């Protein structure tokens, strides 16, 4: 049994010690979960492993075919080396499949499971936290106090100070999602380089909410496959220096919400019932649009979209001067995916 922290995971998966055969990574920040999963994959297979070293599966795929997980667990890589079986969007239905597999004392491929934030009563979480051959990592959202302290360190490291009022305004404007908060703070730091202190006016100028396009307009256009509207909304949203979060982060959040709704539909709920459920908070005027999106996008397609968006986000960090081009390319690629998928259901 191992309940680890994010920074401890590479060591826990190191070959230098008896290694778990399965790991669970769960949390509300989907991007953080995805990035930690990528880190785990690189630790197991090595950063230069071929694409066949990782098999992506959904919960529906392993629940619908009871022997599939065990077959993948026992499969041998065509080119040798270790493989990772990555199961996304997991819940308690995955736990039942894992229990049978973990009861077999044989060696096999590494099982990586990701999920949204799981409660302590979750069957999957209990299994992964208590089983001696597993490791579980929970990624919790920062408190406002923790966020302020971390952003303060970033600002100080850049040789700047920030007034108390400016910090309060910054925290008020930005998301508690770690990636978004870091991105917006770095943008603010760049804007203020050359001066000694960040003032309220600086935060308002660079982080204020002045977008002429709502986030709902943007994501609905993308996932309905309306290319022209998606491109227009992304351009307007990106041009607003005070939008408060990048368009790709918004797209990723929408994908996460759709994945949650798709999981409910896979469990037998109706589309109309899911989009009306209070837990998803879909405004009544958008329910027809979101229902249409759920008919276009199944779980496997959403996982593919999630991987594409997360990859693009990582590229924007590596090539900051190409951020606008990367975002535009990704938005259009997703819109084309939606349009292509829509043609198959009409």
Model description:
There is one protein chain. It is built from 17 helices and 8 strands. The chain has helices spanning 9-12, 30-45, 59-64, 68-74, 92-102, 123-130, 144-157, 164-173, 178-192, 200-207, 215-224, 227-239, 247-266, 271-275, 287-296, 299-318, 323-345; strands at 2-4, 22-27, 54-58, 84-88, 110-115, 134-139, 161-162, 197-198. The longest helix has 23 residues, at 323-345. The termini are far apart. With 346 residues, the protein is α/β, with parallel strands linked by helices. Strands 1-6-2-5-4-3 form a 6-stranded parallel β-sheet, with helices on both faces. Strands 7-8 form a two-stranded parallel ribbon. Residues 241-245 have low confidence and may be disordered. It folds into 3 domains: 2-139, P-loop containing nucleotide triphosphate hydrolases (Rossmann fold); 144-207, Helicase, Ruva Protein, domain 3; 215-345, Zinc Finger, Delta Prime, domain 3 (Up-down Bundle). The protein is 58% helix and 10% strand.
Tally the helices: 17
Report low-confidence residues grouped into runs of 5 or more: 241-245
Strand segment count = 8
Instruction: Please give the CATH architecture of the largest domain.
Output: 3-Layer(aba) Sandwich
The SSE string, one letter per element, is EHEHEHHEHEHEHEHHEHHHHHHHH
**Overall helicity:** 55-70%
Short description:
This protein is α/β, with parallel strands linked by helices and 346 residues long. It has 17 helices and 8 strands. 58% of the residues lie in helices and 10% in strands.
């Amino acid at each position: 049994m191992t309940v680890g922290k994010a920074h401890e995971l590479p060591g826990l998966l190191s070959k230098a010690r008896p290694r778990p055969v399965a790991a669970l990574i769960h949390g509300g920040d989907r991007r953080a979960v995805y990035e930690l999963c990528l880190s785990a994959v690189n630790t197991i297979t090595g950063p230069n492993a071929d694409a066949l070293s990782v098999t992506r599966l959904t919960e529906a795929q392993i629940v619908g075919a009871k022997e599939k997980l065990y077959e993948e667990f026992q499969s041998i890589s065509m080119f040798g080396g270790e493989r990772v079986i990555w199961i996304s969007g997991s819940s308690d239905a995955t736990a039942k499949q894992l229990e049978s597999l973990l009861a077999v004392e044989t060696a096999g491929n590494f099982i990586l499971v990701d999920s949204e934030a799981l409660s302590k009563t979750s069957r999957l979480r209990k299994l992964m936290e208590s089983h001696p051959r597993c490791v579980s990592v929970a990624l919790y959202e920062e408190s406002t106090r923790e966020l302020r302290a971390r952003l303060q360190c970033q600002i100080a490291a850049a040789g700047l100070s920030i007034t108390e009022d400016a910090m309060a305004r910054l925290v008020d404007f930005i998301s508690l999602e770690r990636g978004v908060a870091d991105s917006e703070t770095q943008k603010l730091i760049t804007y203020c380089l050359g001066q000694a202190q960040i003032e309220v006016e600086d935060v308002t100028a660079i982080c204020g909410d002045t977008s002429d396009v709502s986030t709902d307009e943007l994501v609905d256009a993308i996932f309905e496959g309306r290319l022209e509207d998606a491109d227009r909304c992304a351009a307007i949203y990106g041009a607003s220096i005070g939008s408060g979060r990048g368009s790709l982060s918004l797209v990723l959040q929408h994908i996460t919400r759709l994945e949650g709704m798709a999981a409910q539909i896979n469990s037998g709920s109706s589309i109309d019932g899911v989009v009306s459920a209070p837990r998803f908070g879909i405004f009544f005027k958008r329910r027809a649009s979101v229902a249409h999106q759920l008919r276009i996008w199944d779980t496997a397609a959403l996982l593919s979209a999630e991987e594409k968006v997360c990859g693009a986000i990582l590229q924007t960090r590596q090539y900051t001067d190409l951020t606008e081009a990367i975002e535009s390319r990704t938005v259009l690629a997703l819109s084309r995916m939606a349009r292509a998928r829509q043609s198959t259901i009409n």
